[in-house]
Amino acid sequence: MVSRHVTVVVVVVEGRLQFIAGACHVWAAFGVWQREEFEAEFVSFDELLRQSDFLLVTCALNKKTQGIFDEAAFAKMKNTAVIFNTSQGDKRKEKFCFCIIWCDQQEALVKALKTNQIRAAGLDVMTPELLTPDHKLTTLPNCTLIPHIGSAETSTREDMATLTAANIIAGLERKPLPGRLC
To answer: Does the keyword Hydrolase apply (predicted)?
Structure first.
């Protein structure tokens, strides 16, 4: 049992854990090297779901993470839990998908929010990437949607600007673009 009042649980790649370690008790379900300096405790995914107050999901979409947050997963969570998703997406079947709710599992999140199975959700990535104004997620008062800004790090934005400039120059010179646009 955790002795602190708030438990932050993280499903991440190693690099992002250091930003919050030390602020709260941190648990990791998978994808994180267990390292003493992070004071992270490895737990099963089911334990992570049962004990989480705040669940920060930043892992990339792959075979292991695809669709992990389905109706059964939300049913295991505390009704006071808040889930945040800034996961990396993947292009599949012409739809942009991400690991929290892979395309057809988004309804599970909507149901969990509508029935107060979980308290709230904050989504940086959703399916489809651009929701229509009447989409179910846009109508829920306990769901906050923000534009995909998970890449808003200085080095990433500098790389994006450099690639954009290279694309413009190549386009003006009628050469192949170094970075595909779509």
So the answer is: no
* Tens digit of each residue's pLDDT (9 = 90 or more) over 123-143: 887 777 677 888 888 899 999
- What's the one-letter identity of residue 71? E
Mark whether 24 and 91 lie in a shared domain: yes
Question: Does the annotation count 5 as an active-site position?
Answer: no
| Statement to judge: residues 72 and 157 lie in one domain | no
DSSP β-bridge partners for residue 87: none
Point out the catalytic residue in the list 5, 25, 135, 148.
Answer: 148
Token look-up 């800034």 returns 86
Over the Cα atoms of the chain, what is R_g?
A: 18
Strand-strand pairing, 120-123 and 40-42: unpaired
| Rounded Cα distance, 10 and 28, in Å | 5
Domain that holds residue 169: 152-182
pTM higher than 0.85 for the full model?
no
Run of H or E including 84? strand 82-85
Q: Is residue 1 included in any domain, yes or no? A: no
